[in-house]
Amino acid sequence: MSDHPGHWLGAAESALRAAPPTGLLSTARSLLAHYLHAHSVTLLLADYGLAVLQPVTHLPHTGEAVPARGEHPAGRAFSAQVPVLEAVAEPGTVTVHLPVTVRGDRLGVLSVHLPELTAGAPRVLELSAFATAVGHELLAAERDTDLYLQARRRRRLTLAAEMQWQLLPGRGFAREEYTLGAHLEPAYAIGGDNFDWSTTDDHLTITVSDGSGHGVQAALLTNLTVSALRNARRSGITLSDQARLADQAVYGEYGGAQYTAALLLRFDLATGRIQAVDAGSPQLFRLRHGIVERIELDAQLPLGMFEETEYREQVLQIDPGDRLIIASSGVHGALSADGRIFGEIALRETIAATRTSSAHEAARAVVDGLIQYHGSHDLPHDAAVVCLDWRGRPGTA
């Protein structure tokens, strides 16, 4: 064990970077055994529905999953995003459950069983940093192995869902000015709904899109739309021109037979000024001072419906402490088992009820509320929710 707290971390992080993609967990075990006398190390990854945490073991089958929410210590660490210490039967030992999160994207939990004397507050901070390093290497390793993607699966993804998940930027992102959380259902059979975001030093761009149709047809349409929007965004043009070029790309391929509803938002990180283009059905809600209201935008044509559509930008303002929720039509237009529409009232009530939850938990709670309203996890339409908690840039008005 190192006599100097934290001095082992640099060497451990270098060893993680040098580990082969499939050897990341075995390397982590060896490192923690060497430096902190850890008895065992388990990596649990959140499944696609964020319902359970699944251990990375021998594939294609993983070990017994634990709930991602509730009283299980690993679930508490994941949902609350704090280390949780669990007393165990073996005398003189403790298990520390550590969130594995990269820039706000929650991947899972690293559970470390080690001597109780090693689990003081300074060591827990070091272990938290180590878990974050594991998360960074996980994301890099996923480019070269299917191991961790397979471990996340409770069952097989549909082909359309496989396409959609590969297209997503993640399910969360955080920096000084804001925190993002997002959720998709049905997670294992998603078709046309998608969200995307990108940040620079000064701006954040978010898009939520809903391609028409079902299954692979919808996934192909959404893939074209998102790729066209990214291509336009990366060329440095205005938000309205991004919408226009994506509109041309979709119309050029489908001739108006298929189209994509989308909401485009661009945030100025210094001022909270928002440029918005509403090209279809996703709806925008704001929670401010405990009051939920829908932000009415100028409805414009979905992308690809007609040839050479012109799009206009609107300007909005967001204040520190505000929460924005973007919901696709599969959320606000969903029906219950007896045919009643989920609608704006139920959605506003659900948003208000989650006002003290994190952005990640709020996004998931909105979709969970929809599932309860519908009476089944087998939603007839895709549902996408993005939640943004805005803090603003310190030192700016």
Provide a descriptive summary of the structure in words.
This protein is α+β, with helices and mostly antiparallel strands and 397 residues long. The protein has eleven helices and 17 strands. The strands form three sheets. The chain has a six-stranded antiparallel sheet with strand order 3-2-1-6-5-4. A six-stranded antiparallel sheet has the order 7-8-17-16-13-14. A hairpin with a 2-residue loop joins strand 13 and strand 14 (291-294). Helix 1 runs antiparallel to helix 2 (24-36), helix 1 (7-18) runs parallel beside helix 4 (121-141) and helix 7 (215-234) runs antiparallel to helix 8. The longest helix is centred in the N-terminal third of the chain and has 21 residues, at 121-141. It starts with 6 loop residues before the first helix and ends in a 7-residue tail after the last strand. The mean pLDDT is 91. Residues 175-390 form the PPM-type phosphatase domain. This is PP2C family protein-serine/threonine phosphatase. InterPro entries: Bact_Sigma-Reg, PPM-type-like_dom_sf, PPM-type_phosphatase-like_dom. Keywords: Hydrolase.
Key terms:
397 residues, alpha+beta, six-stranded antiparallel sheet, 11 helices, globular, Bact_Sigma-Reg, PP2C family protein-serine/threonine phosphatase, PPM-type-like_dom_sf, PPM-type_phosphatase-like_dom, hydrolase
